[in-house]
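quick q for whoever's on today - can somebody do inverse folding on this one?? i tried earlier but teh output was garbage lol. tokens:
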């Protein structure tokens, strides 16, 4: 996602207020603008970010009397910058939303919901994304992930399966001749991993690699043959997905980022291509998240049980730590096998029913 900076916002305000740059700087609360823009960068998804931007500018009133008009103009520019269009008719509904935000009866969630209902995304070609990525790389935005890929502590906390997902995502990008790795490629990496909770949940919902690839090609097309040679950078959306996954892992008390946390990150960015594809192929992202959470909670309870047993071990800390990791690894293997057998049993029961045989008889 491309973000507006302070001087982008001031330039828009100058056009709306019909004044020069020096005048708009004097008339504006620069600290308030910066606080709003900082808040926007902490959100994921175009509608959510635009909602935070709109609500923040209306509440902070950094532009004085014409604040509402400037706020709407800034949001329209932000949406356009990210290849989308915001429908404002009927204007009375917009005025009502702005009134409720100004009075404190509505906040950024309501603004985001309003914007999401009126947001129209423009088709993006592979060439558009390539040029877009070049601009972000020049601005110093697109290569953030490359820094931690070379040894940042966040990457060190990724589990081996999660790292494998990233490698598979790169391979998927190369296979489509794309010059970037985005959330759609991460989704493909999660599917082609073929093991673990995330892959299983996606498979159970009928979200397959061929179906996802078809939609990727439909939405953004293929790149030019041979364009993906060499190192492929990650998009800012992909970087945000990694950061969200890392935050989810820590919030849940997990020692490492797993593929499940990566899937939560893809689901969080509903405006990303990966999130859009999940919405098309599944009933809803909420349904995917619910099934994922159910599996993750069950796995976590089992792991906590083992960890609790080991915590009662009178042995020294180093031995307990080693035993804990060894037993957790064995537990994960058992759980994977148990879930696989459970799926096979469910499939057999369904087959018997289709042949008019009661599986419980």
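ok took a stab at it. sequence:
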């Amino acid at each position: 996602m491309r973000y507006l900076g302070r001087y982008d916002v001031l330039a828009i305000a100058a056009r709306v207020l019909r004044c020069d740059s020096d005048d708009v700087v004097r008339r504006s609360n620069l600290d308030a603008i910066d606080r709003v823009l900082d808040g926007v960068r902490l959100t994921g998804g175009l509608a959510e970010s635009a909602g935070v931007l709109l609500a923040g500018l209306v509440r902070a009133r950094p532009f004085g009397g014409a604040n509402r008009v400037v706020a709407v103009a800034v949001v329209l520019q932000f949406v356009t910058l990210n290849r989308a269009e915001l429908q404002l008719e009927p204007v009375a509904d917009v005025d009502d939303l702005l009134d409720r935000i100004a009075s404190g009866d509505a906040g950024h969630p309501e603004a985001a919901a309003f914007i999401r209902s009126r947001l129209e995304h423009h088709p993006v070609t592979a060439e558009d994304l390539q040029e877009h990525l070049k601009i972000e790389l020049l601005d110093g935005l697109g290569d953030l992930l490359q820094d931690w890929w070379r040894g940042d502590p966040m990457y060190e906390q990724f589990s081996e399966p999660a790292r494998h997902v990233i490698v598979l995502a790169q391979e998927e990008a190369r296979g489509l001749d794309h010059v970037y790795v985005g959330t759609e490629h991460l989704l493909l990496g999660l599917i082609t991993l073929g093991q673990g909770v995330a892959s299983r949940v996606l498979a159970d919902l009928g979200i397959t690699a061929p179906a996802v690839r078809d939609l990727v090609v439909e939405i953004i097309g293929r790149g030019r043959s041979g364009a993906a040679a060499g190192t492929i950078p990650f998009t800012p959306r992909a970087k945000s997905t990694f950061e969200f996954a890392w935050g989810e892992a820590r919030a849940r008390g997990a020692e490492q980022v797993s593929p499940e946390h990566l899937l939560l990150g893809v689901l969080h960015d509903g405006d990303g291509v990966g999130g859009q594809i999940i919405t098309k192929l599944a009933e809803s992202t909420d349904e995917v998240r619910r099934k994922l959470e159910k599996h993750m909670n069950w796995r976590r309870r089992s792991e906590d049980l083992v960890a609790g047993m080991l915590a009662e071990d009178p042995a020294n800390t180093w031995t307990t730590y080693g035993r804990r990791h060894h037993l957790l690894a064995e537990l994960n293997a058992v759980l994977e096998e148990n879930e696989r057998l459970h799926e096979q049993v469910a499939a057999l029961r369904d087959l018997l029913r289709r042949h008019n045989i009661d599986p419980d008889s």
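fwiw Residues 129-151 have pLDDT under 50 and may be disordered. also Residues 177 and 227 are 6 Å apart (CA to CA). so keep that in mind when u check it
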